[in-house]
Design a protein that fits this description.
Order of helices and strands: HHHHEEEEEEEEEEHEE
Shape: rod-shaped
Distance between the termini: 132 Å
Strand content: 15-25%
Structural class: alpha+beta
Number of helices: 5
Radius of gyration: 41 Å
Largest sheet: 7 strands, mixed
Number of strands: 12
């Protein structure tokens, strides 16, 4: 057998051995620590390159030799990258940046509504404790004013409505004569305009419910810009997104205090 044939045989033998070696170490490589995986691939690649460089040197086998060297070098680099601790450096860096950015965005988007909702509930609780009038379970005339202490949260409006009693519970399908509370800048007290509860003296002894609630800016602005009727603003259901401050029952007396009502 000629020297060229021997060189070609050696080269093919080395190639087969490299492939066999790669296949043989593939399975146990997965069980090795991440740092050891990359080192093992590197050692195998360098050894294969050294063997090919040493034995495949005949002139007729130069092209095969160069191709084998390039292929082996490429496989080695790829193997190191694929087994790099924590994943491929290039891919892991991109993924890490994307993951951190997505996580940060998700956390920010998730925390803002949650923290805002908590702040509104806290403000509602403080407003509830600060209600001065009307008193719960009290007797009221035909027109009253709701007042209290507590700061209305920024971006919200405080509203009051009266509801008819239905078997001892508030009928939430009839929010009548809604009024928006006013709170001057820098003040912690609030007051609504005078509003009617019920009709005339014939409603004496009738129970009604006073419902106070916070509305976010969009709903607050929409209701504020509505043109009220003589009986004020009325709704057939609570506004979506409203936060209840308080809801309590009162009883109408026969006393007429509304300017627009005729006294008996």
């Amino acid at each position: 057998m000629t020297e060229t044939a021997n060189r070609a045989l050696i080269a093919s033998s080395i190639t087969v051995n490299v492939v066999s070696l790669g296949t043989a170490i593939a399975a146990p490589l997965a069980d090795l620590p991440e740092g050891v995986q990359a080192a093992a691939v590197g050692v195998a690649g360098v050894t294969s390159i050294g063997l090919i460089w040493k034995y495949v040197t005949v002139s007729r086998a130069t092209l095969a030799r160069n191709l084998l060297l390039a292929s082996c070098a490429l496989v080695t680099v790829l193997g190191i990258l694929l087994t790099w601790p924590g994943g491929s450096p290039i891919k892991s860096t991109q993924n890490k940046q994307g993951t951190e950015s997505d996580a940060k965005n998700d956390q920010t988007q998730g925390s803002k509504p949650a923290s805002n909702e908590t702040a509104v509930r806290k403000a509602a609780a403080q407003l509830k404790q600060g209600i001065k009038e009307p008193d719960r379970e009290s007797d009221i005339p035909s027109c009253i004013t709701a007042t209290g202490d507590g700061r209305i949260p920024s971006g919200y409006g405080l509203w009051v409505a009266n509801l008819p009693d239905s078997g001892g519970t508030a009928d939430m399908t009839a929010l009548s004569n809604m009024q928006r509370a006013d709170q001057p800048d820098g003040e912690t007290s609030w007051r609504t305009p005078e509003f009617g509860v019920g009709l005339d003296a014939r409603d004496a002894g009738t129970d009604y419910w006073i419902y106070l609630f916070l509305l976010p800016e969009s709903a607050d602005s929409a209701l504020t810009n509505l043109k009220p009727t003589k009986a004020g603003l009325s709704l057939t259901a609570p506004v979506k997104g409203a936060t209840r401050v308080d809801k309590f029952r009162v009883t109408r007396t026969g006393t007429i205090t509304c300017r627009y009502q005729k006294k008996p």
